[in-house]
């Protein structure tokens, strides 16, 4: 495998310590950005370049902030914003924008002053944003951030040697299962298929397993586990793409076999549908991330189980891993307040609140050894999967990967297109984008 071994190990260690995926801004309360100029803010924040704490930074007079958050994590966002306002007297407006969409939206809305002051992105989007000068560096809180968080999360928050992000959660995915239906977690996808043959009944909308079969993030395990990869040379060579090599195609043939367990179109599966069916017992197993943990614990109670992803064609399943990071819009009219919020909303207490509210895995070292995390059997299951996960590449060209592959997977699943044919086409599209078109 051609991704950097160090990053794999540090990503695993990040979670092992815990055992250890909107409305328009067009009004006067838009984080102060309506009056923004078409140039990024000067990086002259008080204390810039020096180690600082949140007690030493003062928000600009009259500052208000807009923060983009995910729908799933909005309960946390509302609470942390309330705490921030109470402490610093800065009003915070929360808007729902899916994290993978935020850099594209920032590219469009940042220069015009319509974007959020603070954004939440997967670390693989950082390169695109930073290389386009859309973000302010994490400077005044940089040393504090580095000291407080895991090495993997700092790697994910850094681009071209500069720290930009404020890490708040480490993520990979695992197998959720209903113990009242599945007595023991399956060891292989062959086991999953065997169980599903006894449980799946399309006429009753009942399925042995469900996951988002059209999404590269959740299906990278089929590509990587038998020798496929994304970019070569430690994930940095845009011209060396292993999504269609022999190992990747072997894994994708196993992907095709699972249609017998889940005989529905890729477009008929989304997070809301999957969540509803799993909560009612009509889906016995779900492949998803820690953001679903709190809700699933409420719905299933002691019947909820979590285990590492089953093996694929006899090989250990290798999943994507990522770091969720806050970043500050370079066009923010209130950079002091924005940086203060990003630091406040990602500190130890905030990460423990996020875990309690959503079920996330912290990156903060002290939070990882807190009993709330260390004694949690569910979080430890994600830690086990993290040992066999790979951080997503963060070069700007990563943005060119999603659309072609997310088009190829439904062709394979829905239309029975040969995996090699579909992936050859996707790889060519990625290369064309890399060589002639900016990342989308």
TrEMBL record:
Q: How does it sit in the membrane?
A: Lipid-anchor
Q: Chief subcellular site? A: membrane
The molecular function terms of the Gene Ontology recorded here are: carbohydrate transmembrane transporter activity; maltose binding
PROSITE patterns, sorted: PROKAR_LIPOPROTEIN
Q: Which GO terms describe its biological process?
A: maltodextrin transmembrane transport; maltose transport
- Annotated InterPro entries: Maltose/Cyclodextrin-bd, SBP
Record's subcellular location: Cell membrane
Decide whether keyword Aminoacyl-tRNA synthetase is in the record: no
Sequence segments annotated as region (Disordered): 33-57
What Gene Ontology cellular component terms go with this record? ATP-binding cassette (ABC) transporter complex, substrate-binding subunit-containing
Renumbered to this chain, the signal peptide range is: 1-23
**Keywords tagged on the record:** Cell membrane, Lipoprotein, Membrane, Signal, Sugar transport, Transport
Q: Any keyword Membrane?
A: yes
Ranges annotated as biased composition (Low complexity): 33-56
Family membership = Belongs to the bacterial solute-binding protein 1 family.
Check the record and name the PANTHER family matching this protein: MALTOSE-BINDING PERIPLASMIC PROTEIN (PTHR30061), MALTOSE_MALTODEXTRIN-BINDING PERIPLASMIC PROTEIN (PTHR30061:SF50)
Q: What is this protein called?
A: Maltodextrin-binding protein
Annotated source species:
Paenibacillus wynnii
């Amino acid at each position: 495998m051609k991704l950097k071994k160090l990053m794999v190990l540090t990503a695993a260690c990040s979670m092992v310590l815990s055992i250890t995926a909107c409305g328009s801004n067009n009004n006067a309360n838009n984080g102060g950005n309506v009056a923004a100029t078409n140039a990024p803010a000067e990086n002259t924040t008080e204390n810039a370049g020096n180690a600082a704490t949140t007690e030493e930074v003062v928000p600009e007079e009259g500052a208000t902030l807009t923060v983009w958050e995910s729908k799933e994590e909005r309960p946390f966002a509302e609470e942390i914003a309330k705490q921030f306002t109470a402490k610093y007297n800065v009003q915070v407006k929360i808007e729902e924008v899916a994290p993978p969409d935020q850099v594209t939206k920032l590219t469009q809305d940042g220069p015009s002053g319509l974007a959020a002051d603070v954004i939440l992105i997967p670390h693989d989007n950082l390169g695109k944003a930073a290389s386009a000068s859309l973000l302010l560096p994490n400077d005044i809180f940089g040393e504090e951030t580095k000291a407080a968080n895991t090495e993997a999360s700092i790697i994910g928050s850094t681009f071209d040697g500069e720290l930009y992000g404020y890490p708040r959660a480490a993520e990979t995915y695992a197998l959720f299962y209903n113990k009242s239906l599945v007595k023991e977690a399956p060891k292989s996808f062959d086991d999953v298929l065997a169980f599903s043959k006894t449980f799946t009944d399309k006429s009753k909308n009942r399925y042995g397993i469900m996951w988002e079969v059209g999404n590269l993030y959740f299906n990278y395990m089929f590509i990587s586990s038998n020798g496929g990869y994304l970019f070569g040379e430690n994930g940095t060579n845009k011209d060396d793409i292993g999504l269609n090599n022999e190992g990747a195609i072997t894994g994708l043939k196993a992907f095709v076999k699972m249609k017998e367990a889940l005989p529905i179109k890729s477009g008929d599966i989304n997070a809301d549908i999957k969540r509803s069916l799993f909560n009612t017992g009509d889906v016995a197993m779900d492949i998803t991330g820690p953001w679903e943990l709190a809700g699933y614990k409420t719905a299933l109670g002691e019947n909820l189980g979590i285990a590492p992803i089953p093996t694929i064609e006899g090989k250990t399943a290798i999943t994507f891993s990522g770091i969720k990071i806050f970043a500050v819009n370079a066009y923010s009219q209130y950079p002091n307040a924005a940086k203060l919020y990003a630091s406040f909303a990602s500190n130890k207490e905030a990460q423990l609140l996020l875990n309690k509210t959503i079920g996330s895995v912290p990156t903060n070292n002290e939070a990882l050894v807190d009993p709330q995390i260390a004694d949690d059997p569910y979080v430890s299951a994600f830690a086990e999967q993290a040992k066999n996960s790979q951080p997503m590449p963060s070069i700007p060209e990563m943005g060119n990967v999603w659309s072609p592959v997310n088009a190829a997977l439904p062709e394979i699943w829905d239309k029975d297109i040969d995996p090699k044919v579909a992936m050859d086409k996707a790889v060519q599209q990625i290369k064309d984008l890399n060589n002639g078109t900016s990342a989308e």
